[in-house]
Structure formats: structure tokens, C-alpha cells
Amino acid sequence: METVSLVDLRDPGEVARIEGFVAEHRGSLFHRPAWLHAVEQGTGQRALGLVAEKCGSLTGWLPLTDVHSPLFGRALVSSGFAVGGGPLAERESTAKQLCRSAQEMAVRLSCSGIELRSGGAPADWESWDHTHCGFERALADTDEAELLAVPRKQRAEVRKSLDLDLDVSVGSGPQDRAAHYAVYAESVRNLGTPVFPRSLFDAMLDRFGDDADIMTIRHRGEAVASVLSFYHRGAVLPYWGGGTLAARVLRANERMYFELMLHARRKGCDSFDFGRSKTGSGPYSYKKNWGFEPQPLSYARWTAPGATPRDIDPTSDAYSTKIALWKRLPLAVANAVGPHIAKGLA
């Protein structure tokens, strides 16, 4: 008989067992307990998870983050601060059973509902696949072939960036972390959204070790673009990246992503996962310009009886005025206030 239970993620043996299950079943980066632990360490949002077992063997796993925010309410998210997650199971029936057990947990915790960054939900949950797309393609075998794989117009921009006075560095030490956070914080302020706490990035780098690093582009010693990337199952995932206002003229982002492709291949990767973007958005078009084909992503949610679903979509009409105001905040103010808000945007 198959059973579902709450797992103790403080038990190293259980964590190792789940990590093995994720690897064996080709789960995503966001299925790994290491991701949940880093989120908890960096933001205080609690790491949880449900496991399905039969005769002592794992048959399913649902990673969960208990997200609690005074501004955005409380919800179970799979997975927090991720673009993936959801039930990982040997059978569809097991995935559904994990979701039903999560419903019971959500009610006990007084959550407004459950958010899955994946498909696999029961038929009576709300599901959709039209809001976001993922972008991934294979890496080329040589540097020149990588450049030729980029469509002509974007390739011209990359070539221009290669002729500019830009320095490239990769690492995860104190200087790398400080430069990345300064660039990223300015970038998201300019977009009108609060920055995540630096402790989240530190926790990710500490937890993932050689499976994460920072690439920074500098012009005359000044960091102008930077990205924190992960390496998982042969793919590089540039995850938290951005550029200063100077980056556009310097084509620093073009240089950064091209150099990351080369760096990832040298690390043994064979694919580049450009992440998700809102369908039809500027980043969506930018990734298409690089030659990536959009693939619709499936999402699902369950809302507790009488509750209102969380709204953390920055493109929502409810946030347009707030975004405009946030863009005008002094950077020091945005960096001081933003992390306290962003902890609830998992």
C-alpha cells in the first residue's frame, strides 16, 4: 500500500534519499532539497515536503515552501523562489495523491492555497499554460559554432561586445557576491520591483557549491552586468542576473550570456536553459532573438474554500502604480526596504 507523509528535512538520511530520488527521476533543480534549504536559510520561509512510499521505497516527492507574508498572505508553493517544482512521481496517481495531501496540509496551516510551478495537478485544480514560456537549447561544440548559432542580428550585437573594453570574471567569493548584488539590486529597482535579500543568494551559493557561480562583466573596473547561475543535469541556468543603465550601451548583457555559454561548455554542460519569461514580454522577445524557441510552461493552483488566491504577478494591473513609484525610489531606500517585501514574493 502506498502512503504519503510529511518528511523531516532536518534528517540528513532523508535528505540524501530524496536527492537520490530526484537524480534518478531526472527532477529539476527546484526539486532538490538543497533548493528548499537555501530558501529557508536565506529568507526564513520554511522548507517542507511530502513523500510517497511503498514497501519502504520512495515513489513520489512534492517539495514545498511555506510562504508567509503580511502583505501577500500565506501559501504552500512548489517550489519557493523557483520557476519549477511540483510533484515528482513514478505514476500519475501518486502525483495526484501528493497534491491531495498538500491540500490537507494547507488547510491545517491556514494557507490561502497551493501553487504548483508545474503540471500534474488533479483535474479540479485551476491549470493553465499560456502565461509563461521556457527557453532552452543545446550548446555548440566550439566557441565559433556557438557564435554562429546566434541569429544574425543578435550575433552582430555579440560581435560588437567582443570588441569592447570589457572584463569577464567568474567566482563565488566575497567580491563576486558584492558586485552581483549591487548590479542586480540596481537592475530590479529600475524595473520597479523589490530586490531579494542578499542572504538568499549567499545561501544558494553556499548550498550548491560547485553547482553555482557568478559571472560579472566589468568596464574599467566597474561592474555593469552580473548573473548568478546554476548547473544541473548538464544544463546551465542563468537565474538571477541584470545590468546597470550603462550595460545597454556597452552591450554587457550580450557579452555576459555569450561568455556564459562558453564557460558552461567548458564545465561539461551541453545545454543552456535561459529560464522563463512572461509570454509576449520584452525578455520573451530578447530570448527569441538569441535563437531560443519558446516552450509553454504549465502551472496549477488550488485555492482553499473561502480564500482569495495570492497575486504576486508584477504585470498585474494592481501593481502598475506601485511599480512606477518604486522605479523612482533612491537606490539606497529601495535596497533597504525591498528585501523585507521580496521575502514574501516566493
TrEMBL record:
Top-level taxon of origin: Bacteria
Residue span, BioF2-like acetyltransferase domain: 155-288
Coiled coil: none
Pfam families with a match to the protein in the record: Acetyltransf_6
Protein name: FemAB family PEP-CTERM system-associated protein
Species the sequence originates in: Parerythrobacter lacustris
